[in-house]
Specification:
This protein has 196 residues and is mainly beta. The protein is built from no helices and 15 strands.
């Protein structure tokens, strides 16, 4: 399997059963993909089949975790998701240290995605399957990002030059991420990576 730069990203033998072979591959990025199958028939003649397909950017997608939760992502203002979002559970030994926090709760795991933006800012809504936890007076929400193995803490301050988040409802947050700011893990112009 080759990606849009024609780099081989997967090469695998497939077991043949009853004259048929099958394999499943889920592309994780938008762009043109190529699948090349090489096989021999009963007469030992070598055959090659090549198929191309394109994955287009989307502005709305759902992603599930291994616990049955589904999280919806929606971009706004003409921005698009260009990678398949992924949810992973945080390693308890690698939890971030937040100043003055006695505990950190990550109820839906770490969400990673890439998006393109037509201007300096990406705006994306993340809708969770159930209401976010209700907070006491001494608690607050923070959006955690892990960039180059360093935890970044995004808060709700709209004066932050690099990004912030806001509560849209009790199930939805809206991220505002500046292209090439401290909350963007991709240094290319127009591409914003949020690595969870």
């Amino acid at each position: 399997i080759q990606d849009s730069q024609e780099q081989t990203i997967r090469e695998q033998g497939v077991q043949v059963s009853d004259g048929r072979a099958s394999d499943t591959f889920t592309p994780d990025q938008v762009g043109a993909w190529k699948v090349i199958a090489v096989f021999r028939n009963d007469e030992n003649t070598l055959h090659t089949i090549e198929r191309r397909f394109t994955i287009n950017p989307v502005n709305n997608i759902s992603v599930g975790d291994n616990q049955g939760n589904s999280i919806n992502l929606n971009t706004t203002q003409g921005d698009n998701l260009i990678s398949l979002p992924v949810i992973e559970q945080p390693n308890p030994d690698q939890m971030p240290q937040i100043p003055n926090a006695t505990a950190v709760n990550i109820p839906y795991g770490l969400l990673s995605f890439k998006a393109n933006t037509s201007d300096e800012w990406l705006t994306i809504d993340i809708q969770y399957p159930s209401p976010l936890p209700t907070l006491n007076d001494n608690q607050y929400y923070a959006y955690l990002k892990r960039i180059n193995d360093e935890w970044k803490i995004m808060n709700m301050d709209p004066s932050n030059q690099d990004g912030y988040f806001e509560l849209v409802s009790n199930t939805t947050i809206r991220l505002h991420i500046k292209d090439n700011g401290q909350f963007d893990a991709d240094d290319r112009a127009g591409i914003i990576a949020d690595p969870g």
